[in-house]
Design goal:
Chain A has twelve helices and 15 strands. In chain A, helix 1 crosses helix 2 and helix 3 packs parallel to helix 4. Chain A starts with a strand and ends in an 11-residue tail after the last strand. Chain B has 209 residues and is α/β, with parallel strands linked by helices. Chain B has a single domain, classed as Pyruvate-ferredoxin oxidoreductase, PFOR, domain III (Pyruvate-ferredoxin Oxidoreductase, domain 3, 3-Layer(aba) Sandwich). Helices cover 38% and strands 21% of the residues of chain B. Chain B has a six-stranded mixed β-sheet with strand order 4-5-3-6-7-8, sandwiched between helices. In chain B, strands 1-2 form a two-stranded antiparallel sheet. In chain B, a hairpin with a 2-residue loop joins strand 1 and strand 2. In chain B, 45% of the residues are buried. Classes of the chains: A alpha/beta (391), B alpha/beta (209).
């Protein structure tokens, strides 16, 4: 049933239908209402066979998830920003222990200075953790992503945590129409969780224990192999979802105007506006296409090489910075295209800490790239000129 | 009654394959605690019930009462992809008279755009107080604080202004709005706010005749 709901509710409703056994979180803006909605559902008895545990911090929440998941439970949490990086110590463990934990990260900037608004810096901290990351464009995609996240994470060829990344405020606080899933649809798609290995006195195992140099590396290689396998598992499950739900979000990447000379690359909610901008610019005669990156980890190297092999100019809009280098998305893309593309790179860091990216601003940048007014390279865009206080 | 001139629409909005794509952009100004965000949200739900695609979202500073708050609403006959803030609104709704002059509420208002304001004085007085150039904007005022105090006992003006917006624009029918209000609020508040909405709707309907 299509209903106008907030992003929070779109996620919570979907989580409920996935029938998690343990939900544990600590409130942080702009995530709080996801777990508030879940807490309300729990209090109303809508979450059967589920424990809702309030934790004293995100570190505690993540630790509880690890324990519950290791014991064979399907678990859920939501967090972002400082909360996510407080979880990070535990989440690296969760990945190493191969626990299929699902987390919704409502992307928010990192301190300092303190900001509750949206960018992708928090996701990037977890880039190397062994956690799958899917970026969504709107609340319908966020709603649909949760069942897929569980199915992918729990697949025995994968067994890694999954993080659904949705832009804080831009999506979480937005009311928009969402076709809410029916229980039968999710039941038919997502089977009950059957853990491969779990903590039980009947067949004792140790998880996350000490590995001497003679053993450690094999565990990490196995994680990388699982990530590689995840690529095909994800593609299969994305397709399966399209059939079951009738909504096809595409594969790891979505390409608009595949024969274009100039390509704009972005992730998250910005992609929606960029669709509009690209369509408008094409009417002006600019041969520009769009690539939406959905799967950020594992990074869809092969898909991007194929899509961008004939591009002449590539414009990347990064929503975070690797200080001392450049935007992480641009770094990944350049690395993926090494020896596969001779395109010029225009890497822009935009929209940090909720800085708005108006339509004309984005169109202006792409137009300047097309007209040769912009030189290839790396630049911040959309900030005010300022004088350095400490020179 | 205030309606869109179809020729005006044709000129102002892009034409896609013979179908006119309508995108109506509304910006709400007020102060934290008055329900500025809720006003946009209620109208997003109500306009969806009328068959439109809608999108509403907030922009505020610190999460505290009394600071100027802005929220945004887009209404379209097509799925909405634009999530940037609204710089060139068709409508501006002002929930608190004290933000006029503090914030440039008419910034970027489209030529022929409409301001619907909670303002104790006439629209001529409002036009004088808005220092920025308002060109041929249409200004309508309603003493929403007075109505809210009388009917709700609190100076929370969002439902008054939601009713006023619907009464002026007719984008949402009164029945639909009342239904939405009754779903949004619970118990006594639902009944009271439904009355508030109706009063403001009827008032603005008269004003815009």
């Amino acid at each position: 049933m299509k209903k106008v709901v907030r992003g929070f509710y779109a996620v919570a409703h979907s989580v409920k239908l996935c029938k998690p056994h343990v939900i544990c979180a600590y409130p942080i803006t702009p995530q709080t209402e996801i777990v508030e909605n879940l807490a309300e559902m729990y209090a109303n008895g809508e979450l059967k066979n589920c424990e809702y545990i309030t934790a004293e911090s995100e570190f505690g929440a993540a630790s509880i998830l690890v324990g519950a998941s290791a014991a064979g439970a399907r678990v859920f949490s939501a967090t972002c920003s400082q909360g996510l990086i407080l979880m990070s110590e535990v989440l690296f463990n969760a990945a190493g222990m191969r626990l299929p934990i699902v987390i919704v990260n409502t992307n928010r900037a990192l301190s300092a200075p303190l900001s509750i608004w949206n960018d992708h810096q928090d996701s990037m901290v977890l880039r190397d953790a062994g956690i799958m990351q899917l970026f969504v464009e709107n609340n319908q995609e966020a709603h649909d992503a949760v069942p897929q996240a569980y199915k992918i994470a729990e697949d025995k060829r994968v067994l890694l945590p999954f993080m659904v990344c949705m832009d804080g405020f831009k999506l979480t606080h937005a009311y928009e129409p969402v076709d809410l899933l029916e229980e039968e649809v999710v039941d038919a798609f997502l089977p009950p969780y059957q853990p491969q290995i779990y903590l039980t006195t009947k067949k004792p195992v140790a998880m996350g224990c000490y590995a001497l140099p003679a053993y450690y590396m094999e565990f990490r290689v196995a994680m990388q192999q699982a990530m590689e396998r995840a690529k095909s598992v994800m593609e299969k499950i994305y397709k399966e979802w399209a059939e079951v739900s009738g909504r096809d979000w595409g594969g790891h990447i979505v390409v608009e105007y595949p024969d274009a000379k100039i390509f704009v690359v972005a992730m998250g909610s910005l992609v929606g506006l960029l669709r509009k901008v690209v369509n408008d610019l094409r009417k002006e005669g600019i041969d520009v296409g769009l690539i939406k990156i959905r799967t950020f980890r594992p990074f869809p190297v092969e898909n991007l090489r194929k899509a961008l092999s004939n591009a002449e100019k590539i414009v990347v809009f990064d929503r975070s910075v690797s200080f001392g280098y450049e935007g992480p998305l641009s770094i990944e893309l350049k690395s993926a295209l090494y020896k596969y593309s001779s395109a010029d790179f225009y890497s822009y860091i935009v929209g940090l800490g909720g800085r708005d990216m108006p339509k004309d601003f984005l169109a202006g940048i792409i137009r300047d790239v097309a007209n040769g007014k912009e030189k290839p390279g790396v630049a911040f865009k959309g900030y005010k000129e300022f004088e350095e206080v400490i020179p | 009654m205030l309606t869109y001139d179809p020729i005006d629409l044709y000129l102002r909005y892009t034409k896609f394959g013979g179908v006119i794509s309508i995108l109506i952009e509304v910006r709400f100004h007020g102060r934290g605690g008055q329900g500025v965000v809720t006003a946009a949200d209620i109208l997003a739900i109500a306009a969806f019930k009328e068959g439109y695609y809608t999108l509403s979202f907030p922009m505020f500073g610190a999460e505290k009462r009394g600071t100027p708050v802005v929220s945004f609403l887009r209404i379209s006959n097509e799925p909405i992809v634009e999530r940037d803030e609204i710089y060139t609104p068709d409508y501006v709704v002002v929930l608190d008279p004290s933000v006029v002059g503090v914030v440039n509420v008419v910034a970027g208002l489209k030529n022929g755009g409409v301001v619907i304001a909670n303002y104790p004085k006439s629209s001529e007085e409002l036009r004088k107080e808005i220092k920025a150039e308002v060109m041929n904007a249409k200004l309508y005022t309603i003493n929403a604080t007075k109505i809210a105090m009388e009917m709700l006992g609190r100076p929370i003006t969002n439902t008054v202004m939601v009713g006023a917006f619907a009464g002026a624009t007719k984008l949402v029918k009164l029945d639909t709005l009342v239904e939405t209000i009754k779903e949004w609020f619970e118990g006594d508040l639902a009944a009271k706010n439904a009355q508030v909405v109706e009063k403001a709707y009827r008032y603005m309907e008269e004003v815009c005749k």
